[in-house]
Amino acid sequence: MIYGYQFMVSKKEMMEHYVIDPQDSYFVNGVPPIENISVVAYDPSWPEIYSELESKIKDILGSNLLKIDHVGSTAVPSLAAKPVIDIDVTVDDAADEEVYLLALEKLGYRLIVREPRFHGHRLFHYENPRVNLHVFTRDTPETARHLLFRDWLRQSEKDCKLYADAKFEAIKGCSFDIHKYHDNKSKAVHDIYQRIFKHLGYI
C-alpha cells in the first residue's frame, strides 16, 4: 500500500523506464499533424474539466472501466503545464478494444496510437478541451508510476517548482517538437522518480 494505493506490480517493474520499441508501428493512421506546444501557468479550471470528462467516460464504459485517474501536470495544483488534460483509463485487457473503442469514439475521442508491448497502451486524442486519454491493461506499472509522480508533486513544493522550471527550459526552441521537449526535461523527471523511489525504500 503506497499513498493509499494497492499496486499489484513489483518494485523492479515500478522502477523500469519504458523505451519505445522501434519495431512498434504504433501510429494508427500515420503520424498525426504537428501541434504547437506551450507551457502555461496552472489553470484552476483543469480539475473541473477533468471531472466532467470523467463522468461521461464512466457512464459510457460502465463496468468495463476498472479505474480512471487524472494524471500528468494538469492534475497537480499550482504546477505549470501543457494545457492538455491527461487521463489514465484502466480496463481488464487493452487488447480487447471492443469493450471501449467504439464507446470512446462516440464521445469524440480519436485513436492515435497502439503500443501492444507497452502494457497494451492505446492513446486517444480529444480536441476541445484538448485531452490525451491513455488506455492500459490492469495491474501495469505505468499507471502506478503516473500516480506516484502526481502525488509526489502534490506534496513536494520543491520538486513541483523544479519540474515547472524544467518545463519552461525544455520548451525553448522546440515548440513544434514534442519528442525534443520530452527529451529536454527527461533528466528532471528521472531525478524526481529517483527521489520518490528512495523515499519509498526501493533504492
Which structural traits does this protein have?
single chain, alpha+beta, Beta Polymerase, domain 2, 5-stranded mixed β-sheet, 7 helices, 15% strand, globular
Overall description:
The structure is a single chain. The chain is built from seven helices and five strands; from the N terminus they run H-H-E-E-H-E-E-E-H-H-H-H. A hairpin with a 4-residue loop joins strand 4 and strand 5 (131-137). The chain is of the alpha+beta class and 203 residues long. It has two domains: 25-139, Beta Polymerase, domain 2 (2-Layer Sandwich), CATH 3.30.460; 156-202. A five-stranded mixed sheet has the order 1-2-5-4-3, sandwiched between helices. It has helices at residues 11-15, 46-61, 101-106, 141-155, 157-170, 178-184, 186-199; strands at residues 67-71, 85-91, 110-115, 121-126, 131-137. Keywords: Transferase. It comes from Klebsiella oxytoca. Pfam families: GrpB (PF04229).
